[in-house]
Amino acid sequence: MKKDYHIAVVGATGAVGSEFLRVLERRNFPVASLRALSSARSAGKQVQFRGESIAVGELGQGSFEKVDIAFFSAGGEVSRTFAPSACGAGAVMIDNSSAFRMEPTVPLVIPEINGEDVRQHRGIIANPNCTTAIALMAIYPLHRAFGVRRVFAASYQAVSGSGARAMDELKEQVTAGQDQPARPRVYPHPIAFNVLPHVDTFLADGYTKEEMKMQNEGRKIMHLPDFRASVTCVRVPVYRAHSVAVNAEFERKVSVEQAREVLAKAPGIELVDEPHNNRYPMPLRVAGKDNCEVGRVRLDCALENGLAFWVSGDQLLKGAALNAVQIAELL
């Protein structure tokens, strides 16, 4: 008999939280009840779900009574603070923050890659970093065919990865124009008409925490402890959808024709690779789209057994809300 589930969405008024609601509705997830939760600042607002207005409640330690699945997208501090009460109430927590991704007992899951890992959960399942998820959608099927050794990558990350305030900031700065840019608040410098290093926390070796996520999370997701990734993360003046330029080296010889055949059959990703017809992945094409796109596939001229390719994907969907709902569907 089909079961309906009592759902909680933490951070329901944010960019990703709003996508949780839309994805649950669009994929007809069996929801018996939905509890929208947020900070005191947003409590009392209304969100829409299946044609009904739902009042947003203030997140508290008692918010998870009789909840089956709790989606979290309110930052790592909130996730760490409320994980004990969510799991203690019997809910399975699907967390979009980085708080638990590298915990050995917490599965870190992209369903198309390591969906079986969901079975190992002890109350918490982690969603990967958005750039990692989008890049691995193309890297993993190629790994299965040719055995990936290492990648060099540069990300082109949309401002929506920083939340709704960053999207508003870009719009304000574009409207103000290049000569009189609006004062930055989310970023240290104007993002309109500009690109910025994706700076969060610098590590001793000069990389940032964001830049190391593809290697660290990729090893766990692909069950590949020797995987290496050198990444430069860049924030670009795009509202929605991330792109990643990838140069990958493989253990076995690879051809462009073989790679295209593998990618064309891979779940969750579409091959869009007709550069002479101006058809290639672009953020504008994939914004609001479930599948990621891969193109510009070519032999790497500097790496042995290497491929260069370009991936674009909606980081609010496959990089966040969609991936989390797919995890819930596996449950």
Describe the fold and architecture.
The chain is of the alpha/beta class. The protein has helices at 15-26, 76-88, 111-114, 130-146, 164-176, 209-222, 256-265, 283-286, 317-330; strands at residues 5-10, 31-38, 46-49, 52-55, 57-58, 69-72, 92-95, 124-126, 148-157, 196-197, 228-235, 242-250, 269-271, 292-299, 306-313. The strands form three sheets. A seven-stranded mixed beta sheet has the order 10-11-9-12-15-14-13. A hairpin with a 2-residue loop joins strand 3 and strand 4 (52-55). The radius of gyration is 20 Å and the shape is globular. The mean pLDDT is 95.
Task: Provide a short characterization of the protein structure.
With about 325 residues, this protein is α/β, with parallel strands linked by helices. It is built from nine helices and 15 strands. The protein starts with a strand and ends with a helix.
Topology:
Layout: E1 5-10, H1 15-26, E2 31-38, E3 46-49, E4 52-55, E5 57-58, E6 69-72, H2 76-88, E7 92-95, H3 111-114, E8 124-126, H4 130-146, E9 148-157, H5 164-176, E10 196-197, H6 209-222, E11 228-235, E12 242-250, H7 256-265, E13 269-271, H8 283-286, E14 292-299, E15 306-313, H9 317-330
Parallel strand pairs: 1-2, 1-6, 2-5, 6-7, 7-8, 9-11, 13-14
Antiparallel strand pairs: 3-4, 9-12, 10-11, 12-15, 14-15
Helix pairs in contact: 1-9, 4-6
